[in-house]
Amino acid sequence: MNKPFSQACENNKLPILALLAEAFSNSKSVLEVGSGTGQHAVFFAPHMTWLSWQTSDMLLNHQGISQWLQEYPAGNLLYPIELDLNHPWPIEKVDAIYTANTLHIVSWPLVQAFFSGVSQHLNQQGKLCIYGPFNYQGKYSSESNAGFDIWLKERDSQSAIRDIEAIIALAEKAGLTLEHDHEMPANNRLLEFRKID
């Protein structure tokens, strides 16, 4: 069986790594929410040997993630746990949480559930990094994002590029403060939050 493959993961892994290595420099444990194919995990973990990288996703994606981990093993890279945003997270506290290209895919109630989980499971002074496209003041940041949003909604009416103001409001309610909003390639952003409450 062929491994799942995402070209987007390959395209953006280097600029994301550069920021994560700095953001997670004092972290010992990171939970990746929605590991997808597993490509980000197998690339990032060997470059951040000081931390334990826990993959997670819905059960249906575990086989693909595990295939990538088997082919590119690392001593600090952990096989996926089942994490469904509809249910309590099966994990204790962690120093950092990372998620990429998830908040525009899942429904808004699940975005809210994501931040509730972050609030419960992220340690004090822990870091949350979110990668993906966002709107600003209700407007698309590019024509390509506008087209992408149409495609998302046609595929699933619950999906949409989220307004950054709404994301920041949820984060603040969860005890997080936005420290950096990094501009990334292909009209994406990397939002870096710290847990202060």
TrEMBL record:
Signal peptide: none annotated. SUPFAM superfamilies: S-adenosyl-L-methionine-dependent methyltransferases. It comes from the Bacteria. Gene3D superfamilies: Vaccinia Virus protein VP39 (3.40.50.150). This is DUF938 domain-containing protein. It comes from Cognaticolwellia beringensis.
